[in-house]
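Predict structure. Chain length: 393.
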Amino acid sequence: MSVELQIQIDDMYACLGRCAGCVLSTSERRVTRPDMTEEVMDKALSRVSDYIAELKPSVINITFGIADHFMAGSEYVEKIYRKTAAVLKSNGYGRGNAGIFFTTSMIGKRDEMERKIRYFERVKEDVPLVPVVILDPTNISHPKLAQQWVETSRITKEVFGMVEMAVNLSTIACNAITPQQLMDYASDIGFAYLNVNWTPTVDSVKSGVYDLDVIEKWLLELAHLTSGGETKIRTSLLAHMLPAHAGLRTFDASESLAEHLIKYTPNMHPYSWQISHEGDVFVKFDALGDVPQTPRFGYRKFGSIFESSLGEIARRSEDEVRRDILREYVSDSRCVSCPYVKACSMTGYHIYSHVVGDLGRGRECPHFAKSVWKFLDEHPELDVSSMREQRFY
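Prediction complete.
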């Protein structure tokens, strides 16, 4: 079976951006240094190396998040890149089956940003290094930031060859730019892939930055754009949901949801992890972008890299992860009777159900997954391969 191992290492919270849909608090973004110490970084990469040797995945994606790594300087990005590339190459991975990603807001003085980016013209390893550029849609109309962002993004693509764009959804973001405007903007710069992230935390839900009706309408417009051949840009919206939707044709109708999860959890649970700046380990899922079960979303850690290997944590936590998923679906009558519940249980939408609470009260679906499942029903011509994330495969 072809599987991708995804590891996110949260080493950096500093950011000059102010995305309304960001998981970070204002105080977290104010720092200018890496939050993860070198000791924790080295231990994390050692654990990842051991896990790669144990799991032997087909493809590996290691992402350094959550915020703007250029704030720590190009030298820092080079250091973590070379360390990670060494881990991958020592396990037999490189260009074609592995990639290293890092996030940046691309905000800063234009000349300084160009210097930081062009620094990497001399940094060459046989493992792709891919910037994930986070766009705050409210900056598109900014008199200075808008053009500067375009210029620095084009320079980034020139230097790195491959660049991804990410947008953190909120009511503010959806009202600031239409899906068509976003696709045009991304296409003009030369982006090939758009990560659409919706990460409502316990705190941000209370702040009122999410109107589910507004976000649902925006997402369906995006789905129509990306499925109709009107744009060549792929997005995480359909790429993450199509595989689960395809399974509806083969799932055993006689199985309960609990039996279904016993069968399928081992196919997804061991392959996606998030490591905090302190070394705590959390399971991560594909929904609208990557959504982890962390304290920000009302969950506790599954272990620590200083106490256990990733393999041990994976084996120990499988039953608990299954219970976490099952609990959200069996406790909501809308989910119990939903024809898409088995597909939904194979994504990270249970985390949204856990977080949104009263925000989703009175809706047909606790959030808006059902609308996207219905959209996929109406477009049987779409297949997994046509929407797959074409990164470094």
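Summary: The domain at 4-246 is CATH 3.20.20.70 (TIM Barrel).
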